[in-house]
Amino acid sequence: MPSDPHILHVFSSAGLYGAEHAVLGLIPALEHLGIRSTLACIDNPHLDQQPLYTRARELGIVAERIPCKGRLDASTTLAIRTLLERTPGTISHVHGYKGAFYALRARRNHPESPIVATLHGWTTNSGALWLYRLLELWMLRRIQRVCIVASPMQQPLLSAGIPAERIRLVENGIDTSRFRTSDGDMAREALNIPEDAFVFGSVMRLSVEKDPIGLLRAFAGVAQDSPRARLVLAGDGPQREEIERLTRELKVTDRVRLLGARQDVENIYPLFDCFVLPSLTEGLPLALLEAMACECPIIASRVGQVPAVLEDLPASFVRAGDTSGLVEAMRKSMHSRSRLAALRQRVEARYSVTRMARDYAAVYRELGASNVTQAA
Question: What is the architecture, at CATH level 2, of domain 7-173+352-375?
Answer without folding.
Answer: 3-Layer(aba) Sandwich (3.40)
